[in-house]
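pls design
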């Protein structure tokens, strides 16, 4: 009897969590007008002067001629 109550409680808790999570996700849909990345510095102001030196920001992804990775298998 006691194990049946525990199983029923776990099932009810799991179902309630699933339903509440689904309701939360559907009520917080992505804003299609949101930018993909926030602007840090404009292109005209690519460098920033800081005490003790300067800081130059640039894109972190550089184009290359390397063959694309087609498999990520590792043994």
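designed seq:
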């Amino acid at each position: 009897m006691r194990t049946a109550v525990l199983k029923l409680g776990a099932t009810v808790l799991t179902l309630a969590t699933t339903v509440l999570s689904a309701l939360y996700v559907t009520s917080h849909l992505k804003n299609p007008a949101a930018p993909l990345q926030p602007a840090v510095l404009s292109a005209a102001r690519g460098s920033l002067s800081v005490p003790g030196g300067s800081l130059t920001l640039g894109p972190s992804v550089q184009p290359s001629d390397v063959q694309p990775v087609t498999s990520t298998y590792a043994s």
